[in-house]
Amino acid sequence: MRVDCLQENLAKGLSVVNRAISSRTTLPILQNVLLKAEAPASLKLSATNLDIAINCWIAADVGEEGATTVPARLVTDFVNTLPSGPIHMELNVRTQSLHMSCDRTEANFRVIDASDFPVIPTGNGNSTLSLPPATLRHMIQQVAFAASTDESRPTLTGVYVTTDEDRLVFVATDGYRLAYRATRVEDVPTDLAVIVPARSLSELARIAADADEEGEATLTVTEDRNQVVFQIPGKGTHESKGAFQRAELVSQLIDATYPNYKAIIPSKWDTRVILNTQEFAQAIRRAYLFARESSNIVKLTITPGEPGTLHLYASSTDYGDHHAELDAVVEGQGLDIAFNGRYLLDVMQIISSPQMVLELTKPNRPGIIRPVGMGEDEFLYVLMPMNVR
User: Does pLDDT of 295 surpass 70?
Assistant: First the structure.
């Protein structure tokens, strides 16, 4: 193996795959990153912790094809200290070492043979669909936060990925709230219904932040239906710096039956409130400063009128209390209800539209929060109320 690439691109590729490295594994090969020179002009980097695997291709000049693995943490730290410019790498099979040189600096890394590295599935299988990388990233950001972090309930630690007519649907819930996001896609597979770990999707969103927005991201379920492969187009060329050509994330799926999320979503409302998103977000942030000291309880009092009002109240036995009143468009009847302030804060961080809607029925029934005017792309957030004595 003999290959040349830019320091900026190698550093970028290592940063992409390193999140799949496990520091707690007892298998030395899993602490290594696979480097594979592929003619005519790519260097493939791969890492896995057996739950997820990440492949990343960067532009390179390949003098001789080949592959090896090197300690991921060491090579990453070393490359990050190198100056900008070309890096030359050459594998010495006799000494089982990888020679790396840049400017007037060089190093030799002890390697483990590439044949010992786990086989990573490719994007060949059933249930394949394509969508813009930005849409995929936004869908993940708008639902993954609502998944459970309780490992004793593994089903709820994932995001349910399915289709509904001509829409791709992402759903996540932890039992107290539910986030739903749908978008129209072409050639929708009718048999797509899998649970992807939320942590895997969060890593995917991080990678997709550097995607080529002119390209298409793809989602493929492997033929044995126990893994999903996401492919992300990159901006990397021989002239670009700090970019990858393309990336793949392979994740194990959660083998379980997801709850019937449609039954959780309220089908009607008795009280409907339209609010300025920024004003409500700021009011929730202030209320939460007090609510976090008292079970996160934020009380809402909704009063119809011209204009209607929404009153927020939070208190702490040790620190005091907070009151705020916002103008709102209120349809239907008045209502007193309480929500978890932390859960309200979470959803406010991902609503970007100027106005939002709060739809409620009774003080002990879940409410819906959604942005105004999303068009064909749909988002809603179902939140269970808190019991206040």
Answer: yes
| pLDDT for res 376 | 54
Partners of 310 in the beta sheet? 302, 326
Residue with tokens 């594994």: 25
SS (H, E, C) the chain: CEEEEEHHHHHHHHHHHHHHCCCCCCCHHHHEEEEEEECCCEEEEEEECCCEEEEEEEECEEEECEEEEEEHHHHHHHHHHCCCCEEEEEEECCCCEEEEEECCEEEEEECECHHHCCCCCCCCEEEEEEECHHHHHHHHHHHHHHCCCCCCCHHHHEEEEEEECCEEEEEEECCCEEEEEEEECCCCCCCCEEEEEHHHHHHHHHHHCCCCCCCCEEEEEECCCCEEEEEEECCCCCCCCCCCCEEEEEEECCCCCCCCHHHHCCCCCCEEEEEEHHHHHHHHHHHHHHHCCCCCEEEEEEECCCCEEEEEEEEECCCEEEEEEEEEEEEECCEEEEEEHHHHHHHHCCCCCCEEEEEECCCCCCEEEEECCCCCCEEEEEECCCCCC
* This model's pTM is above 0.90: yes
Element (H, E) at 376: none
> Hey, what are 370's tokens?
């959604």
H or E stretch at 80:
helix 72-81
User: What are the b/e assignments for 152-187, b being 16+ CB within 10 Å?
Assistant: eeebbbbbbbbbeeebbbbbbbbebbbbbbbbebee
Give the domains, in start order, of the chain with CATH numbers. Answer: 2-116 (3.10.150.10), 127-219+254-262 (3.10.150.10), 265-383 (3.10.150.10)
Cβ-based neighbour number of residue 131 at 10 Å: 17
Contacts of residue 81, defined as CB under 8 A and 6 or more positions apart, other chains included, come to none
SS3 of residue 384 by DSSP: coil
Angle at alpha carbon of residue 132, lines to 253 and 383, rounded to 5°: 60
Q: Tell me the helices (H) and strands (E) count for the chain, helix number first.
A: 7, 25
Residue 118 near residue 32, CB atoms below 8 Å:
no
Q: Provide mean pLDDT across the span 36-41.
A: 94
For residues 100-120, give the mean pLDDT.
95
Tell me how many degrees the CA angle 39-69-90 measures, rounded to the nearest 5. Answer: 55
